[in-house]
Write a structure and sequence with these properties.
The protein is mainly beta and about 260 residues long. Helices cover about 10% and strands about 55% of the residues.
Length: about 260
């Protein structure tokens, strides 16, 4: 808890520092929507493990894999070639499996159909500090051709805290509707991100100042996930389960700034 408070205290001081001196440099607001293939090797093994009572619901091709990621970032150009800032991101992946079965009642001589959706969702929220190297400034693109002077190329390094959760729920469909939350496991851990931004400045800056793509690799592997009373999920070989959102990503990047 003390480490968490210290981290957020440092984050707040940096944000105050950036806000105070924002008029001395360029302040940018960046938004990225990206897709990636997360590793998730241990949790995917758990989905088909005999210790998991719902394993029979999943086919051989059922995996937590593709993630959607939304990231927001505030950057301040503190020097000609360098940006510093803060970021926050949210990403998720999940599986929904439909299960149906029939129950025969000999007293009524009737058969009732039961159906429900089993949902397994993994989420991750991250926040931290950012450092960027501005290659368009290093190579002095402003004095090049009309095309190059509008190009923005930067290398971004993010580091911070991440909060990962794994939740499951059973959603009744018939003969009656209901929702039963089965488990909720969590972990707090460090994460990092290395990426390249390739943006192009817009001529008519009505709202957006530039658009482009962002690609990179994030290091985002949780520790052992635990529920509220400290229990863990275990494989049949007694290995504890974690969530691994690490992987290569590619997405669209939008910037708002002066």
């Amino acid at each position: 808890m003390k480490k968490t408070i210290s981290f957020y205290g440092a984050l707040l001081l940096m944000f105050i520092h950036i806000s105070t001196f924002a008029q001395k440099g360029k302040l940018d607001f960046n938004f990225t929507y990206s897709s990636q293939q997360a590793r998730m090797s241990v949790i995917n093994e758990f989905l088909h493990d005999q210790n998991f009572e719902k394993a029979t619901l999943f086919t051989e091709n059922s995996y937590l894999q593709k993630c959607n990621k939304i990231q927001g970032q505030i950057d301040y150009q503190c020097a000609k070639y360098i940006n510093i800032g803060v970021f926050t991101s949210y990403q998720n992946t999940g599986l929904i499996v439909n299960h149906q079965f029939f129950v025969f009642d000999p007293l009524e001589n009737s058969t009732t159909k039961y159906a429900y959706d089993y949902q397994l969702m993994a989420n991750n929220i991250s926040c931290g500090i950012s450092y960027s190297i501005l290659y368009h400034e290093i190579f002095n693109f402003r004095n090049k051709s009309n095309f190059l002077k509008r190009c923005i190329i930067k290398n971004v390094f993010n580091w911070g805290l991440a909060f990962s959760t794994l939740r499951s729920a059973q959603i009744g469909i018939m003969p009656m509707k209901y929702e039963l939350n089965e488990f909720d496991f969590r972990s707090m851990h460090l994460n990092g991100d290395i990426s390249v931004n390739l943006n192009y400045e817009l001529i008519n800056k009505i709202f957006l100042s530039s658009v482009g793509i962002r690609f990179g690799y994030q290091f985002n592997k949780s520790g052992i996930i635990k529920n509220i009373i400290g229990q863990t999920l275990l494989l049949s070989n007694d290995r504890s389960v974690n969530l691994d959102f690490s992987g290569v990503y590619l997405g669209l990047n939008f910037s708002i700034g002066k």
